[in-house]
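User: Predict the structure for this protein chain, please.
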Amino acid sequence: MRYTKGDHLGCYKDLDIPKQWENESWGNDTMASFRYKNTRIWIDYPNRKDRQMDDLNPYRFHVQIFESKDWLYADDEPIGKEYDTDSFEDVLEYLKRLFKVDGYQLLEYIDFT
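Assistant: Here is the predicted structure, written as structure tokens:
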């Protein structure tokens, strides 16, 4: 799904975001973020010169996994499984593998087509 409005649109306007992902981007963050069950997918700007946090994490995509699908970012910490890459296709493949291999309850919800 291509978005045409929202905070940090420049981070993801070139991507086909799966329709199941909820856009949680807001102005106080330095990049866009999406929620899918117990994951948060951060997406930075395609051009590195536009990124504000490039010195801390040079990758465009960052995936965090939380204990519960009901997590609140301010209250919950990631469970330690995180993934960084510059490829959106790698993010999609990582999530498919993660849910299948680790046996998360969320497998039936994954449909990135």
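The first helix runs from residue 9 to 12.
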